[in-house]
Amino acid sequence: MGEPLAQSTGANLDDALELGPVDAAALLPGAERRKVLAYAGVLLLLQNFAAPNGGLIGVPISFFLKNRLHLPAHELAIFNLWTGVPLYAAFVFGMLRDRWNPFGAGDKGHLVLFGVATALIYAAVAFLSPTYAMLFAGVLIATACLQTVSAAANGLVSTIGQEHLMAGQASTVINLSTCLPAVVGYLLGGFFSDLLEGRGAASAARILFLVAAGLMAAVAVIGGAGPARFFAESRSRLATSLAGDIARLVKCWPVYPPLIMLLLWDFAPASGAVLQYHLANALHASDTQVGAFYAIFYAACVPTLLLYGWLCQRVRLSRLLFWSTLVAIPQWIPLVFAHSVGVALIMAVPIGLMGGLASAAYVDLAIRSCPKGLQGTMMLLVVATAYYVAARFGDVWGTQLYDYRGGFLTTVIATTAVYALILPVLLLAPRNLTSTSDGQPLEAVVA
Q: What is the pLDDT of residues 109-128, one digit of tens each?
């Protein structure tokens, strides 16, 4: 089964970790595996489409704040920083999912209860005037409520990925469910931006939030009708107190390498608010063209994410981590050579292609590293808390560099340097969690 974890990491963790093999018989037949992944993917897709920080909702709000309320780059970053507070604390909602069993229904209970609650919040906001205060309060409350839905969906798919030896395929589903709503959201972002700037802004905002309410209602319905077997499997946990669970997570060494990798990967000063302002101000791109750039970028991630879903069943994770990181380090450099909108749109293709494998590999490692019974906490820690802490503070630093320290080129240099720091972190990943591909026996992490 490979070296003991303490030997592979050089740390004495015998008292903190118990390792046990996951039986190869847990591998699902192909048809059943695809069915389960498709179900989890639909849940994740719907909630990501409705997320106020992205998808169909976040992009129009960003354009509205920039164009109608005339927020400069730094103030837009500050708005995102404060409304993202529930995202920084997303692991708390993950812990809620792991410890609380509403209606005795586990993840089904979370999906139904908080899916309906988020839908009602969106419906209420739909009939208010789209002012700065309303948008701030609506985004903040809806974001907080939606995190428990996210914890249930991500906890479910990560548990299935662990239990059935398909962490890489589960990672592909999680990443695709993030990219596809972004593609649609950015393609329609310019259209919604125009609606929110016209005389019918209030009506357009109402329709937008009612669509989000409908999506969350669909999450509640589909969550309640899901396959009982896999929902039952997702509830496996150890009987410990809240303090015990926190201690297990803190003492669990495998948690830290993927967490550090994703913090560095998501801390990209060149890719957030700075990029939007660079395209609009330096290259004179319209809102529609800015949206098209992001749509092309996320769409270009899709082929390499699908490629990862194939490779992870044939190549061990350690190799995928190394080569995908090496490819991703210079990801944003091509945009330095774009001096027109047309060239920038072309450059969005290689930029997206260079990042897909790395995103999937880091989440794959995170799924393998989830402590037993704390999958919701771990997944929201790495896919939400780590992402938004890194991205929001990367935005703030990036806008400072952009406005006062040399412009867009400086932010690209900073991003490339941060990405390069991921390479030494790869050495920290326990080898007995990275030495296999999907379908091969894996040692379970029980902190």
A: 889 999 999 999 888 888 87
Would you place residue 262 in the very low, low, confident or very high pLDDT band (cuts 50, 70, 90)? Answer: very high
Cβ pair 365, 145 in contact under 8 A: no
Strand 442-446 relative to strand 18-22: parallel, antiparallel, unpaired? antiparallel
Evaluate whether 253 touches 16 at the Cβ level (below 8 Å).
yes
Tokens 């704040």 correspond to: 65
The strand pairing partners of 429, in sequence order, are none
Which one-letter amino acid corresponds to residue 313?
A: Q
Read out DSSP for 194-258? Answer: HHHHSTTHHHHHHHHHHHHHHHHHHHHHHHHTS-HHHHHHTT------HHHHHHHHHH-GGGHHH
Which helix (H) or strand (E) covers residue 407, if one does?
none
Q: How many beta carbons lie within 10 A of that of residue 419, not counting itself?
A: 21
In the chain, helix, strand, coil percent, each to 5? 75, 0, 20
147 has a pLDDT exceeding 70: yes
> Would you say 56 and 184 are in contact if contact means Cβ atoms under 8 Å apart?
yes
DSSP-H helix ranges across 278-340: 287-311, 317-328
Q: List the helix and strand counts (H, then E) for the chain.
A: 22, 2
Rounded to two decimals, the pTM is 0.85
- Judge contact between 170 and 365, C-beta under 8 A: no
Residue 132's pLDDT is 78
> Which range, of 210-214, 255-259, 362-366, averages the lowest pLDDT?
210-214
Give the confidence band of 235 by pLDDT, cuts at 50, 70, 90. low
* Beta bridge partner(s), residue 21: 443
The amino acid occupying position 118 is T
Evaluate whether 303 touches 357 at the Cβ level (below 8 Å): no
